[in-house]
Amino acid sequence: MRTVKVKRPSPVFWVLLGICILVASAVSLEVGPMTDPPSWVVTGLRFPRLVLALLTGAALSVSGCVLQSILRNDLATPYTLGISAGAGVVAGSVIVSGIMMPVMGLVAAGTAGALLAVVLVYVLASRGGRSEYGSTLILAGVTMNLVGASVLLLFEYFSDASRILEIVRWMMGDLAVIGWSKPLFLLPAVAAGLVMVMFRTGVMNQIAQGDDIAFARGVAVGRERNLLLASAALLAGSTVGVAGPIGFVGLMVPHIMRKFTGSDYRYLVPASAMGGMLLLVLADSVSRLLISPAELPIGIVSSLTGGPFFLALLLRSGRRTGG
Amino acid sequence: MPALTMEGVSAGYGDQKVLEDIRLSVMPGEICGLIGPNGSGKSTLLRSVIRLGVEVRGSVSICGSSFSGLTRNQTARLVSYLPQNFNPNSHLTVFETVLLGRHPYRSGWSMDSTEDLETARKCMEETDTWELRGRVFANLSGGEKRLVMLASALAQEPRLLLLDEPGSSLDFRHQLNMWLLLKKLSGSGIAVLVSTHEVAMAGRYLDSVMVLSGGRAEAFGSPKEVFNTVILSKAFQVDLHVSHDGITDSWVVVPGVSR
User: Fold this and answer.
1) pTM for the whole thing?
2) Tens of pLDDT, residues B196-218
3) Alpha-carbon gap: B60 to the closest alpha carbon of chain A (Å)
4) How many CB atoms lie within 10 A of CB A282?
5) Which of the two residues, A135 and B252, has the higher pLDDT score?
6) Could you say which residues from 197 to 236 on chain B have a Cβ atom under 8 Å away from some Cβ of chain A?
7) More confident of the two residues A133 and B136
8) Which residue of A113, A163, B28, B176 is 20 to 30 Å from A236, comparing CA positions?
């Protein structure tokens, strides 16, 4: 019998990625305005912030992976589809209202907003029963982003001065935390989302082949797509609710990881989760170092690097389709 | 036992009725063709076998089991379907694409078993696509993509293969290779139900033909019984002259020639 091999990421790749995350995490605990911080700064500020960055990075990257597979569009991410905007509007309205809401409430509000945005974008893009999602999907996402941004501006306009600073800060993406409440409340939502997705990576491969082919291979396409969309919304919405919109992570990480793992989602999803952790921990350290002792909101760092990346992908896909 | 039995099958999309009272039986190792004008219900008939986006009334049995008694996975292990148009958003290699046909044999997150890899290799060798294994699927030509997708459909190890115009967009050489391949597959016991417009070539390789018109079976029989001027002209609603070339054992259909 001839040996048949298929190229898969080697164990060395996973170990190296793990080591990179550990090193970046260790560096992140050292970075800050204080060179020799007291232990409560590390355990009460930097460590929970690190965990929040790890969770947010994994959640946003995997959410992007899911959306790209089930909507069959390389440019689909929570940010470009307006899912972050939907989460932002609902979570932002909670912040602006001044209601003292526990962190869990923000997670729930963000998730609800994300689900609402997913439904709206999906309905807009699939109008007329089409099964291919191209520019309509991105346009629907752009519309959602514009409407979301306008609503948030409206909130700002009618808010009192103390609230404005809070919401502006949140809109820029903010990983700064005091204590463990935010990461601990986010953990179950992200863990549930990741587990739901990991057990469906085979299904993601099938749906990316097209609905008819997936159906003929035994996939309940409608149900699985809805579950995956809900998982993507849970992952993106809960993190946006807690940390604000952090753009382009869901776009950059899956595309970079694809170079190492190939496009099989069984390997791409865990690699994206780990890559997302690494990227956000690094970006968070950079955001704290650039204008130290002050810090740059992480959303600005991710957008400044992600924007050109998105443009390059857009131009490349335009060339490929002759448009 | 027939690989496929359809009794009194009507099918459609919502209020739109497309097929009416179809009776069809395909035995293992038989290639059955569906011929008819555009919109006659060929694709809908193929889709109604696995209820792919179609509302179906009547009885459909696959390898002796009623469709309603089969789970999705059981159906996918018995029947594979290749649509006329496919456009995977995929950066996968050819080998990975063929391996996806093994989905009905997996559950949750699982690695490729040795059996999966071996089956994929065999199917690729059968379809002459093994040499393409390392290439990215998206970069293949239309004909190569079709063969790779056929290999992927075969990786499901089906007893019944449903093909929707597999020769469309293929040149003469690839069309011939496709029909030769179907003949080879049928020789191994797989039943094939195939819709096609290639009357000339199909007649040589089909064991039976159903001529569809307006969602109804206009005629059913061997190509010799069915491919004639009267039946095809009526089905296609155009004057056709149909003749059989004994030297090449193929049919010549010339439109626009009145009887």
Assistant:
1) 0.87
2) 988 888 888 999 999 999 999 99
3) 16
4) 19
5) B252
6) none
7) B136
8) A163
CB atoms within 10 A of CB A79: 28
Model pLDDT for residues A188-215, shown as the tens digit of each residue? 999 999 999 999 999 999 999 989 999 9
Q: Kindly tell me the burial class for residue B206, based on how many C-beta atoms sit within 10 Å of its own C-beta (0-12, 13-18, 19 or more).
A: buried
Of the ranges A92-101, A123-132, A208-217, B28-37, which one carries the lowest mean pLDDT score?
A: A123-132
> Choosing among B89, B90, B119, which should be mutated to test the A contact, i.e. which has the most A CBs within 10 A?
B89
H runs (alpha helix) in chain A: 11-30, 39-41, 47-70, 83-97, 103-125, 135-158, 161-171, 181-198, 201-208, 211-216, 221-243, 249-261, 265-289, 298-320
The DSSP letter of residue B152 is H
Interchain contact B16–A (C-beta under 8 A):
no
Across the interface, of A6, A72, A262, the residue whose CB is closest to B89 is A72
Residues of A within 8 A of B89 (CB-CB) are: 68-69, 72-74, 208
**Residue A322 has what pLDDT?**
39
**What is the amino acid identity at position A92?**
G
| Residue A74 to residue B88, Cβ atoms within 8 A | no
B contacts of A198 (beta carbons < 8 Å): 109
CB A117 within 8 A of CB A85: yes
Of B87, B112, B156, nearest to A217 by CB-CB distance is: B156
Inter-chain residue contact B87 with A205, CB threshold 8 Å: no
Average per-residue pLDDT in chain A?
Answer: 84
For residues B219 and B212, give the distance between their C-alpha atoms in angstroms, rounded to a whole number.
Answer: 7
Which ipTM value was assigned to this complex? 0.92
Domains of chain B, each with CATH number or no CATH: 4-88+159-228+235-255 (3.40.50.300)
Contact B100 A209 (CB under 8 A): yes
Rounded (5°) CA angle A98-A104-A106: 45
Quote the mean pLDDT of chain B.
91
Nearest CB to B108 within list A1, A199, A219: A199
Q: For residue A206, which residues of chain B lie inside 8 Å, CB to CB?
A: 100, 103
B109 with A132: Cβ contact below 8 A: no
For residue B100, give every residue at least 6 positions away whose Cβ sits within 8 Å of its Cβ, in sequence order, or none. Answer: A205, A206, A209, A217, B92, B152, B155
| Residue appearing with tokens 């391996």 | B99
